[in-house]
Amino acid sequence: MMKDLSFNAVMNRKNEIMKKALGMDYSIYESGGIAFDYEKMMRDTGFGLSDVMKIQRETGVGNTPLLELKNLTELVRRISPKGKGARIFVKDEACNPSGSFKDRRASVSVYMAKKLGYKGVVAATSGNYGAAVASQAAMRNLDCIIVQECYDSRKVGQPEILEKQRKCECLGAEVVQLTVGPELFYTFLRILEETGYFNASLYSTFGIAGVETLGYEIAIQCREMIGRDPDVVVATHAGGGNLTGTARGLIKAGAVNTKVIGASVDLTGLHMASDRAFNRKSFTTGHTGFGVPYATDPDHSDVPRSAARALRYMEDYLLVKQGEVFYITEALSQLEGMERGPAGNTSLTAAFALAQQMDEDKIIVVQETEYTGAGKHPLAQLSFAKKNGVEVKFGNPDEEIPGTNIILPENPTLIKVRHADMDKMRKSYIKNTLNRAKVDYVDDKDIEFLAIETKTNRKFVESVLEEFGIKK
Amino acid sequence: MSNAKKGDWVQIHQIVLKPEERTGKLPEDTKKVPLELWVKGFLNHDANLYDEVEITTLTGRKVKGELVLINPRYEYGFGEEYVPELLNIGIQLRGILKGGDNK
Questions:
Q1: Could you say which of A71, A182, A379 has the minimum Cβ distance to residue B86?
Q2: Could you list the residue range(s) of the whole structural domain that residue A436 is in?
Q3: How many Å lie between the alpha carbon of A468 and the closest alpha carbon of chain B?
Q4: What pLDDT is attached to residue A471?
Q5: Which residues of B touch A280 (CB under 8 A)?
Q6: How many domains does chain A divide into?
Q7: Which of A211, A286, A295 is closest to A251 using CA atoms?
Q8: How confident is the model over A338-396, as pLDDT tens digits?
Q9: Which of A118, A180, A194, A279 should one mutate to test binding to chain B, selecting the residue with the greatest count of B CBs within 10 A?
Q10: Domain containing A127 — which CATH number?
Q11: In principle, which of A105, A235, A325, B87 could form an S-S bond with A243, CB 3.0–4.6 Å?
């Protein structure tokens, strides 16, 4: 009998399709209430850190250099008060086979797909992750399909996403491209069902376990280079996996005093599912349009329970402007001789601002770079922005309005630290979690879980619950 | 004569959901337009542009849709116009490092 492929029928088969495509049953981690056993879920990958490293060595992933950005640090010191200007290091993740840290994230998933006997892998992504999955699949002789949100209704595509299409196709993957909208998930499910391939989800336990090596390497390399752990690691934050995996790796290395700080491009005011706004932004990821919803509602991803849980690890969340990131991208190439992609420089921009407030003997590590080239270069992206009616000018980045203008800082001193409201996000996380679980009371275990999930304490959680009128 | 021959590398187009079939929390502008899909593959039979065709994709899937491009090329690059603003940044930053007062 032919399967019903209508939207509702496919969405109703979601759990069944996912279970088959993930090779694991998430229901065993549930408590029945709000809490679920995150650490058990992570342990059940069956891989320790050294196993993940071995898997990654097989395909040339990881072991990227940690570089000190001496000229950029010197620039910070020239514009900071005396004694300020922390040393900035960068983990050059562009050296991975497909050009970004996403190879780490793809490596374990694709290894598992092969081991479990799947013929191919599917991933829903418009970014570097697609190239990473395609590259890993090529190395392990698996078929690969990448599903991209790519075009607006005029079939105008973001140059960065078009470059990713090319790269995936050149690595042998099939690329399915869609116009804007969350119903991409329906197409994704249909392809999983039709092919029986593995869902190489960004949010699976394998994806996050793969990033732990990044945090681990940073701690080890810092100890080798400067004899101690870094004071701060800045991670670009979108779906939360980058930050979560890095933080877990740092903890596994024993770098428990290193602060992990998230950074995103501030795209407040642009609706991510808007046909018109789609091509009026210059960043397709690493922005607040993903960063805030994924931090405050991690379980709305393409797996039943996301392994990317940023609020557990994030000490602070810094917001940078599009114009500032383009400016710093230019600074990295002009002062350090490193041409890297803008999206990967989001955390570098936050580090540049943060370093101005920190003492000279402090260490900041920016934990990624990404490749650059046609489509994903400031020239391509700013030219595209202008063509789509966005004004590009010099001025004060504080006045930047996403979708209307991109303001390149007139002077590097204008690149400033801007904190997101973490407590507001934590409250929002608790609210979303209550809504998802559809409960009107919580038990002790739930309170403890919410405190860990929000990196707070019982007192904070209890006060928020009281505010929402939830009984204990 | 047909524009495209069996075996040609082509791109096809599909409407996945018509505007009235779209779901979820969508902004007004997106609600008014369909959800569209494009995919490439080898043409399974001779056809003309804009015909309904069937292709075989790189993973061996058979997919039907409207033939929109033959030998589709990559059309993006480093922008249709140069962005001179970027020139100023390097000049300014090198100036500060060389000791100029740009505070």
A1: A379
A2: 423-467
A3: 24
A4: 79
A5: none
A6: 3
A7: A211
A8: 999 998 899 999 999 999 999 999 999 999 999 999 999 999 999 999 999 999 999 99
A9: A180
A10: 3.40.50.1100
A11: A235
